[in-house]
């Protein structure tokens, strides 16, 4: 599904729309909304920082395993600006978590799931995996000290050193307690790497 808002073209995967339908059928649509809201907060952090710095996205691709904000100037921007754009995604999540948690302490319990979703999305995106913000930040920081190809290899090694033990632990947990959440996270990370196409920010 494609549409345009101002100068930006949006591409929404039909697989994501199918996931929405499945969530409705399984009765977990409310949980899906909390997570989708936290992801939206996260992406707004990237977009707001990008626009503040004077850059506007050409296209936003919303797929089942990734959201790509595409603009033609990311390679020509300074490392500092790219660091800021990446950093403010998780930062918006943590700010939203703090606000929601303070409201919860004031007795507004309905916002607690949204607070938890924002904390989870923020922390998840800081994992040292190259398809996530944490991996992108690691690459940019390393590329300031060493050659780009060596920085890329280092983050690739860090990614697989993180994912394989996580997948093994998830598989063990599934066999031991029927809990598939950690295995699901591992599978998601693998698919996000495949869809990212080994691209760095």
What does this structure look like?
This protein has 201 residues and is α+β, with helices and mostly antiparallel strands. It has helices at residues 14-26, 29-52, 79-105, 112-125, 133-143, 148-177, 181-196, and strands at residues 2-5, 8-12, 59-62, 67-70. It has a four-stranded mixed beta sheet with strand order 1-2-3-4. β3 (59-62) and β4 (67-70) form a beta hairpin. α3 runs antiparallel to α4 and α6 runs antiparallel to α7. The longest helix has 30 residues, at 148-177. The mean pLDDT is 83.
What's the helix and strand layout?
Blueprint: E1 2-5, E2 8-12, H1 14-26, H2 29-52, E3 59-62, E4 67-70, H3 79-105, H4 112-125, H5 133-143, H6 148-177, H7 181-196
Parallel strand pairs: 2-3
Antiparallel strand pairs: 1-2, 3-4
Q: DSSP helix count? A: 7
Mean pLDDT figure: 83
Number of strands: 4
Name the structural class.
alpha+beta
User: What string, H for helix and E for strand, traces the elements in order?
Assistant: EEHHEEHHHHH
- Strand arrangement in the largest pleated sheet: 1-2-3-4
Spatial gap, N to C terminus: 25 Å
Which spans have pLDDT < 50 for at least 5 consecutive residues? Answer: none
Task: Give keywords.
7 helices; 201 residues; alpha+beta
Q: Could you provide a short overview of the structure?
A:
The chain has helices at residues 14-26, 29-52, 79-105, 112-125, 133-143, 148-177, 181-196, and strands spanning 2-5, 8-12, 59-62, 67-70. It is α+β, with helices and mostly antiparallel strands and 201 residues long.
């Amino acid at each position: 599904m494609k549409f345009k808002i101002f100068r930006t073209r949006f591409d929404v995967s039909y697989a994501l729309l199918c996931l929405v339908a499945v969530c409705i059928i399984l009765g977990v649509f409310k949980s899906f909304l909390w997570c989708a809201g936290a992801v939206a907060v996260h992406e707004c952090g990237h977009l707001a920082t990008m626009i503040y710095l004077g850059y506007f996205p050409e296209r936003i691709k919303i797929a089942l395993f990734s959201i790509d904000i595409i603009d033609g100037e990311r390679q020509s921007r300074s490392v500092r600006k790219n660091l800021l754009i990446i950093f403010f995604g998780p930062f918006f999540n943590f700010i939203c978590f703090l606000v929601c948690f303070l409201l919860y302490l004031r007795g507004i319990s309905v916002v607690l799931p949204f607070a938890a979703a924002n904390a989870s999305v923020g922390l998840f995106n800081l994992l040292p995996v190259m398809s996530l913000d944490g991996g992108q930040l690691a690459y940019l920081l390393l590329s300031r000290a060493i050659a780009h190809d060596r920085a890329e290899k280092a983050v690739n090694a860090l990614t697989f050193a993180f994912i394989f033990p996580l997948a093994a632990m998830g598989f063990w947990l599934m066999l031991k307690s029927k809990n598939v959440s950690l295995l699901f996270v591992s599978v998601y990370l693998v698919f996000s790497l495949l869809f990212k196409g080994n691209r760095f920010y």
